[in-house]
Predict the structure.
Amino acid sequence: MTTVQEAFFDVARRLKLTTIFGNPGSTEETLLKNFPKDFRYVLALQEAPAVAMADGYAQATGQPVLVNLHTAAGMGNALGNIESAWYNRAPLIITAGQQTREMLLIEPYLTNTQPLEIPKPFVKWAYEPSRPEDVPGALMRAYAMAIQPPAGPVFLSIPMDDVDKPCPRLPEIRTIGRRLGADPLFLAPVVDALATAKSPVLVIGGAVDQSGGWDDAVRLAERLRCKVWAAPAEGRPGFPETHPLYQGMLTSAIGPLAEQLEGHDVIVVIGAPVFRYYPYVAGNYIPAGSCLFHITDDPNEAARAPVGESILADPGRACAVLAELVPVADRLPPLPRAPLAPPSAGPVITADQLYHAIDEARAADSIIVQESLSTLKTLRKRLPTSQSGSFFSMSSGVLGYGLPAAVGVALAERDKGTNRKIIDIVGDGAANYVIQALWTAAQHKLPILFVVPRNGAYNILKAFAHQLDTPGVPGLDLPGIDFVSLANGYGVTAERISALSELQTALRRGMAASTPHLIEVEIDPTVPALI
Ligand SMILES: Cc1ncc(C[n+]2csc(CCOP(=O)(O)OP(=O)(O)O)c2C)c(N)n1
């Protein structure tokens, strides 16, 4: 008779879940024994990078993916990136082993005493099957939960003695819808408001791109001839940042954000929370006299918005429906933003110069994965995203995402056969949370160009200290880290650049490399303003 393990892999195979990102332990080895030849195990050297690799892979393929972690301890290591997957809406099906049922009562070594509690609140569903033979069915249910809107991580705890038990009945492999509709009836108030608005504005979030709405958002904006902003703190853009109607990324503080939207009477937010704020700066949520519509497929997001009328609908589909229904506006489109002047030269390389140089050196279809904190605003200006699915980051604020996410995105590019170049820009603070992801990049010979802007500090925290008036905070400087040696140690070629004159050649070399390469760039440590 089919065993639970055979049934597990059979279900996974039929759901096309044949890539597993993970870091195993003894409690997982029973499930992984005689690993099927048509499956691939992508080894990360710790659980946190395993999850972020899976997140990058899931986002870049648009498909759910399996993650294999080690019982309670591994789940703990992974939790930060599980939180990121939650906010990134990445459909990850995470499994971890559990001690053998025979001994669970007496709490042996490696018991996960609270398997369903540890990943909370960042999973949509956590389950340990009541019976061994329910493991394959639980995988089917986990898959269904992970992909439904809003997509996100789920967790299955699998006792290690379940796998050899007989599984008399296989679950039915079901098809589950991944999208909501966008009912014109429910969107009618938005259409009416947009049709009569004097100065409407769109605020677009990453869920628009995740739901395939990139082109429809452009169509909608062009019919409205209105300004378009990116929602604050989103992990990926939903609108081309090179489009003449695009204005930039909204700031993420209450009062200043409302000031940026001043002059607009109708604000339509699509595929983002309203809004993801930090730091706290008091003020109105939206300009006095304006009205806000919020279109989301996430009921939780709809519930927590402090203002506006929320409508549950698929963000991408809503853009398409609105673009059909709104009349072409009878007004001149706003003037496009003035082109950026080239960065000014100085004694040290600035973030502005670095990102300008990367923009000059990169291919038009390259992908940016990033975790650069204090220089993000400059990065978004100098390295605008022009195509769908070309910029990935985390919207959680949890460090430890950028390096491994690039590995997942690069694997996805290889699997899809599109093989676009990945440029991974990660701060010298952020890189240390998951530096071992470099090893996986080297093992798989992934053509990622890692760029580490080294300002020798947690500069964003210095900017926060200034903004929040908290002088004298310790632990904000990072002297003496050598990323060239670290990269070499994990099998990645690397170089250090401190002069602007060497930067362009180094970047072009890195762009052309067919294996991972890291460039540490010494940059100006001046702390920028937070807002
Ligand atoms: C897991 C985790 N630990 C700590 C923090 C707090 N934190 C936020 S930003 C930051 C510093 C980032 O420094 P770096 O990557 O060098 O970027 P910079 O601000 O210098 O541009 C830290 C430690 C966090 N966000 N996540």
In short: Residues 71-88 form the longest helix (18 residues).
